[in-house]
Amino acid sequence: MRDKDQITAVLTNYATGIDQRDWTLFRSCFTEDCQCDYSEMGAWRDRESITRYMIHAHSGPSLHRLSNASIHIEGDSANSRVYVDALVTGPKGIGGAQTLGYYEDTWQRRDEGWKISARRFVPVRLKFLGLLGLIPSFLALPIAALASRRVNAALNTKNQNTKNQNAKNQNTNH
Which of 82, 114, 115, 149 is the most exposed place for a label (fewest CB within 10 A)? Predict the structure, then answer.
């Protein structure tokens, strides 16, 4: 398989991993130390952090469509830009949002294949669905960003509490 085809396959795995809640497939798209910046939605500095966020941010059905991939390869590194049209709904498909934008990715070839080592999501438009659709588009992104910050803060607190409990358990066992 050619390099561009392999990178395109990883992009497809990314979208499929999210939409089918196959978090092992999703994780396989990134290097362990990937740097991901999703604009106002948040930034993550490793594969596990972005995976935790995506698990919590996708509580209902979703559909991620990627298109217009432009891929440039130099040796074991590559850069790409791909358009994304993502429909993400709330639990049981109630409410949600449609996000349009593009991903700018930096890639590294590893022993197991091409992996995203850095990603920047550039939002172009965010439209809420359902009753939230009454919110004007120019307010949608700031509101979504606030919700994302709350999810990220809750995940960080949960992570810290787990680490503290693990440390406490280790001290008790010794």
Answer: 149
